[in-house]
TrEMBL record:
InterPro entries: Diguanylate_Cyclase, GGDEF_dom, Nucleotide_cyclase, Rev_trsase/Diguanyl_cyclase. This is diguanylate cyclase. Residues 296-430 form the GGDEF domain. Its EC number is 2.7.7.65. Residues 223-268 form a coiled coil. Pfam families: GGDEF (PF00990).
Amino acid sequence: MSKPPEPRDSISHRYFRRVFRWFIGFAVLLTMVLVAETLWQGRDKLQTELTVYQRSFERSIAAALWALDWDKLNSIAVGMVEIPAIRGVRILDPGGSSEILRIGALPDPGAEIRGYGLTHRFDLIHEEGFVRERIGVIELHSSFDQVFERSQRQISLILLLGLLKTLVLWWIFLTVGRRLIAKPLTEMVEVLADAEPLRPMRLSDATRKAIDGTELGALQVAYDRLIERVQTAQKALEDVNCSLEERVRERTLELERANDKLEQLAHTDPLTGLPNRRQFIAAAQTLIALSRRSGRPLVLIVCDIDAFKRVNDVHGHTVGDQAICYVADCLRRAVREIDVVARFGGDEFVLLLPDVSAAEALAAAERVRQLVSGSWISCPNGERLRVTLSLGIAEWATGDVRLEDLFLRADERLYRAKAAGRNCTIADDTNAPSTGDPKAVRSAGQPAGH
């Protein structure tokens, strides 16, 4: 089993990188809000201080201005400028258009509008009895530099804490992610890659504890159950295969037996059990080849049942089949093991005798003829039927080329035996037939001719 490709990245790293993009953006925005709030609070605090200074100096300035005591007025204004929160002082006429006194650093025109200046403006009131008279306007000037200077430490602390919080959270999330996600996933992948054969996941105790109750734990349980089902299916499949193999073996044996039976039927006569024409020809070709090489004699005997058509016509085909089986049994008992005996077709039989002389073949043929004619066949109607054979003998000669040459001579002598009165054997072209009792043949009701 090939191993899965190595991952190019950790899912925990990828996850937390994407999460921290949003987190860092939110942290920066929150830090800016905190810095702005700090600056705004510093501005409000500075504005409050200017209001306090207003209450401290407005009576004395108003008295000096009412008395037109310029030295005292200037001295008070210089003293005010020396206060850190106040950068400059300007006193205007009651209409606020003409400048009476100007002390300290004042912003350029429009600086407050642009947001760089901070001005606290209030009226100078002279009170005498029940009379209140506005005698001028005073402006206390400061700037946001004061706010920044006062808030610098607090802003630095906010920025430092924000950066430290981000780094610590990044480290915490990354460490926890590795422990709860990256390491369990890596171990699960390694276990799955090495699972040969298939088996449930075997994870370390730390990993089991880390994923217990999580989606990864559910994934492990689902995988183990899947493996159990696969193993159950494999076991069932193995059982089916074993059963199928056993059935295949049984069917194979049955097929082999059927083939053997078919092979036997292809080479055996189904009625008598003797070899059929095909089997006889194959055996004859082998014996002829041996006779050619060794020069040993080979004799063919052809025989058939006398008046067999009349037997079928008078007694029926069942008796005819009985007569054929009877003759086949006599042939089996009369020949040697090395001899080939076969049913050539119908009521015709052949015998192939290797390593016998013509005289020995004639004696064998007579033995067969006498064995067949020496008994009776009982018919279903109670009659007894005597069966006889006519036989023709031919010996393999030097000029013979094929089995047909030998067979033609033997068949021609068979017909001569038929013409000589049946129940006899013709061995050559000159010898008289060897025969049994012609009267016995005629008493069986056999007419002349084949």
